[in-house]
Amino acid sequence: MELISQTAVDGRPGPAAAPTYPTLEGVDLADIFRFTKGQPFADFARMRREAPVMWHAEPFGGPGFWAVTRHEDVMRVNGDPETFSSQKGGILMSMGPPDKRHALLFRATMDTMINLDAPHHLQLRREHMPYFTAGYLRGLTEKVRGEVTRLLDEMEPLLAGGAEVDMVERFSSILPLFTLCEILGVPAEDRGRFLRWMHYLERAQDLAVQQAMAPITPTLELMQFVADFNENIEEMFDYGRTMLLKRWEDPRADLMTAIARAQVDGDLLADEYLDGSWLLIVFAGNDTTRNTLSGAMKLLTEFPEQKQRLIDDPSLLPGAVDEFIRMVSPVIYMRRTATRDVEVAGQPIREGEKVVMYYGSANRDPEVFADPDRLDVTRANAGKHVAFGYGPHTCLGKRVAQIQLEEAYRQILARFPDLEWTGSMEVAANNFVHAISKLGVRRA
Question: Does position 133 have pLDDT exceeding 90, yes or no?
Answer without folding.
Answer: no
